[in-house]
Task: inverse folding
């Protein structure tokens, strides 16, 4: 499991309201008195005195109830004050009086768009253009609606039409860039944004959108500079502060990222899903001040249905399956709702093989790839055609070469849109689509919302529900997802025997012999370790660790150093709990085979909660290091227990913090008991189903057959129990 999907805000799009007369009103048949009043009202409107302008329009309507300008412009005031439904009603009344005014339909379309009535908005813009084909602003506004409808090629064409009419239309260049951004044509998008700011140097929105494109191109330094330019022009631009935080995260400038998120939330407390990014980044640097109050706000916001967090950050913060499910559903409905744009699936002629496709950004040296490489090599080619759809960076490392050669077909789709990927999947006749990303970094749930295959599976990369009705199954076992907890998943559980997690028995452990001295460890004393990412360390877990260190004289705690700030903060927290901060030793990242080898210098791995060790747990067990866990209430908090049960080491799975601490202390002070555990681990590693990828492949293939058979029989997804 990797980092979160820190999704930026939507691009900033410009839609123009038209029809506020600059010199004389449209309704030239008015009496001189009404004409004078209308000019006064328009003057108030143009100067932003909306309440007074509305009152003036209403005075005119008392004299002439069917006065077009006053009805129409009252509707515009309603739109400008957030009363979009009233705006539509008033503009409709005006249109009944004079149905031949294009800008009235343009403004009506803007109000309908803001109400989320996109198809009606599109029809209104089409009516405006039927009346005035050279209406550049209506073409541009129409393009924005088409973009929200995900009709991206049509959106781009609409912006191009606006620019053909009005080449110096800065807003159209900006919006054209947004369409190109959504089409994953990032370099072209930047060219459009550059044109927009050339025409309008103070155009903060275009600089902001340009930053979004640069971030997609993995050019975070330039993205940061573009966000900073937007903020120099518009200091209260909350979205720019938020996405600036995302760029800083990419640059590993985490302290500064926390500050940017905090600024965004100060400006706009309800910024969509921002609070989760802020809290997650604080946890990455182990900044725990105000955490109790912030977690109270966090959980309460989810209960109230707020768009407060993406699903991933929650996994490491709250051990509550109900909240994880609700947060996932809120996020899915807001960002990735089911789409019927590609229509129903068309059956393909059976050829005796089931076509299974795995979709990921991580088909290279990455934790997910380390786990499943051998599985891909072990799939039965007589019964299955296995496809890989890669939407991550093109890295020609050893793992990429190994994985790509294991697939029947390996397809690079990183520059294709979600619609193009889903359409290609259908054209190739995929029977089962397996999402290896969920809501982790670089995830693409949008392609599954469109439907890549008639059966879609959440597997391995994301330890929780996706909260999406278009994901049919989740691969699990009865420990990580107990039968009584199925209701907290939108997907139907597929129960594998042993553990849900696959492993590669061919992973190499370096023969390099490390010394304690070269790794910063003292020569004597017991070495506890935890190589989990620092964001998984909550104060409660740290409290347990400090009590364990106090009870085991001369012991140290060996941790992974994600960043220098986290190391400094953790040492400070140790001192505050009466433990010398120098008893915390921090390990730098190194190649995987050497990382596995250095496990030999540790004595016991101490797990975290509410988010356990996942790949890091497999690393420890494969390297021969015993791991102690405390099981939680969620999938993410029960993974290590699943692995230990599959290794026949259930005594290392505890149920309470007190038991966790007492077992750790007992093993650290009873060398014989620890030695016996190590010997059993070494023996079981060779015979355990946890590291038998061939056996695992047969079980997973049986699951795929059961899914496929149900679909072929016209049956809906249902729980599949292979564990019995």
Result:
């Amino acid at each position: 499991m990797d980092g979160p999907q820190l999704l930026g805000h939507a691009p900033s799009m410009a839609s123009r309201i038209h029809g506020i007369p600059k010199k004389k009103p449209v309704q030239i048949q008015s009496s001189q008195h009404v004409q004078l009043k209308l000019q006064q009202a328009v003057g108030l409107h143009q100067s932003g005195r909306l309440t007074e302008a509305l009152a003036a329009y209403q005075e005119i309507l008392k004299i002439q109830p069917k006065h077009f300008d006053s009805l129409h412009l009252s509707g515009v005031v309603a739109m400008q004050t957030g009363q979009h439904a009233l705006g539509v009603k008033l503009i409709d009344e005006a249109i009944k009086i004079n149905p031949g005014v294009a800008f009235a339909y343009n403004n009506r379309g803007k109000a309908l768009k803001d109400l989320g009535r996109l198809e009606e908005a599109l029809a209104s813009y089409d009516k405006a253009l039927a009346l005035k084909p050279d209406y550049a602003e209506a073409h541009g506004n129409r393009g924005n609606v088409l973009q929200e409808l995900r009709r991206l090629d049509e959106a781009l064409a609409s912006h191009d039409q606006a620019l053909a009419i009005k080449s110096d239309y800065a807003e159209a260049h900006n919006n054209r860039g947004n369409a190109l951004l959504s089409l994953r044509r990032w370099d072209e998008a930047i060219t459009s944004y550059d044109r927009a700011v050339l025409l309008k140097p103070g155009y903060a929105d275009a600089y902001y959108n340009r930053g979004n494109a640069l971030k997609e191109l993995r050019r975070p330094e330039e993205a940061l500079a573009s966000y900073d330019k937007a903020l120099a022009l518009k200091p209260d631009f909350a979205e720019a502060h938020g996405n600036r935080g995302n760029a800083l995260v990419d640059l590993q400038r985490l302290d500064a990222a926390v500050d940017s998120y905090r600024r965004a939330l100060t400006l706009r407390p309800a910024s969509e899903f921002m609070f989760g990014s802020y809290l997650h980044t604080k946890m990455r640097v182990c900044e725990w001040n105000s955490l109790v109050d912030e977690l109270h706000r966090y959980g309460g916001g989810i209960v109230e249905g707020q768009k407060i967090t993406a699903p991933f950050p929650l996994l490491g913060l709250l051990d509550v399956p109900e909240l994880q499910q609700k947060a996932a559903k809120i996020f899915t409905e807001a960002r990735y709702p089911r789409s019927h744009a590609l229509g129903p699936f068309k059956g393909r002629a059976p050829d005796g093989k089931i076509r299974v496709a795995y979709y990921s950004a991580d088909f290279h040296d990455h934790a997910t790839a380390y786990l499943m490489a051998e599985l891909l090599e072990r799939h039965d080619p007589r019964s299955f055609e296995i496809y890989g759809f890669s939407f991550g960076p093109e890295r020609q490392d050893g793992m990429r070469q190994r994985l790509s050669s294991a697939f029947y077909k390996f397809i690079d789709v990183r520059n294709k849109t979600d619609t193009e990927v889903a359409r290609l999947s259908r054209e190739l006749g995929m029977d089962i689509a397996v999402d290896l990303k969920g809501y982790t970094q670089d995830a693409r749930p949008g392609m599954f919302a469109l439907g890549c295959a008639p059966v879609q599976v959440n597997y391995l990369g994301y330890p929780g529900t996706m909260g999406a009705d278009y994901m049919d199954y989740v691969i699990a076992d009865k420990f990580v997802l107990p039968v009584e907890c199925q209701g907290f998943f939108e997907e139907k559980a597929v129960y594998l025997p042993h553990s849900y997690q696959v492993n590669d028995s061919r992973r190499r452990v370096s023969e390099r012999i490390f010394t304690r001295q070269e790794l910063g460890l003292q020569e004597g004393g017991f070495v506890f370790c935890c190589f989990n990412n620092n964001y998984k360390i909550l104060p409660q877990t740290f409290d347990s660790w400090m009590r364990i260190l106090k009870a085991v004289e001369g012991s140290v705690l060996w941790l992974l150093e994600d960043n220098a700030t986290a190391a400094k903060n953790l040492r400070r927290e140790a001192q505050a709990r009466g433990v010398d901060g120098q008893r915390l030793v921090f390990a730098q990242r190194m190649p995987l085979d050497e990382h596995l080898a250095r496990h030999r210098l540790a004595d016991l791995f101490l797990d975290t909660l509410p988010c356990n060790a996942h790949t890091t747990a497999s690393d420890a067990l494969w390297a021969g290091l015993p791991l102690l866990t405390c099981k939680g209430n969620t999938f993410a908090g029960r993974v290590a227990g699943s692995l230990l049960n599959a290794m026949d080491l259930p005594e290392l799975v505890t149920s309470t913090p007190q038991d966790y601490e007492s077992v750790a202390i007992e093993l650290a002070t009873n060398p014989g008991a620890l030695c016996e555990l190590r010997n059993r681990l070494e023996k079981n590693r060779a015979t355990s189903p946890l590291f038998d990828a061939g056996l695992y492949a047969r079980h997973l293939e049986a699951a795929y057959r059961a899914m496929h058979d149900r679909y072929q029989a016209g049956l809906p997804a249902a729980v599949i129990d292979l564990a019995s």
Observations:
- DSSP finds 30 helices and 14 strands in the chain.
